Amino acid sequence: MPFYLEIIISVSLLTGGVFLLVGSYGLVRLPDIYMRLHSPTKASTLGITGVLIASMFFQSHLKGFLSIQELLITLFLFITAPVAANMIAKTALHHSNKPAEKTQNQALMDTIRDRESPPSNSIK
């Protein structure tokens, strides 16, 4: 394996590992569910992307042609992580999970929780 490829793979793995470590630390240390959503959706997604890019380079070198499976997995993660975080936040909001004192705009949480859905006949 060429030295430049080993450097690219090593840097990508180290960068991904650092992001995963920061995301895991944030998941443990942040005080409430609303703040904890940031670490798996941002830091951990970038960490997995770094590891998958390293895997893509390695597999491309072994096979002799471009390996795109890792890019498809990364695309899937970038699409699904924000949607999953949004659903978790909505569930926490509707179950009235209390935010930490430092959470900003807490008054908006009651407004969002108590709003009514639009009438079904207004959607055309």
UniProtKB/TrEMBL annotation:
Write one Pfam family the protein is assigned to: PhaG_MnhG_YufB
What's an example of a GO molecular-function annotation for this chain?
Answer: sodium:proton antiporter activity
Signal peptide start and end residues: none
- Transmembrane helix recorded as keyword: yes
Q: Does the keyword Transmembrane helix apply?
A: yes
Spell out where the chain crosses the membrane. 6-28, 71-89
Highest taxon of the source? Bacteria
**Where is the segment annotated Disordered?**
95-124
Which keywords appear in this protein's UniProt record, sorted alphabetically?
A: Membrane, Transmembrane, Transmembrane helix
**The name this protein goes by in its record:** Na+/H+ antiporter subunit G
User: What species was this sequence derived from?
Assistant: Marinomonas hwangdonensis
Q: What is the lineage of its organism?
A: Bacteria, Pseudomonadati, Pseudomonadota, Gammaproteobacteria, Oceanospirillales
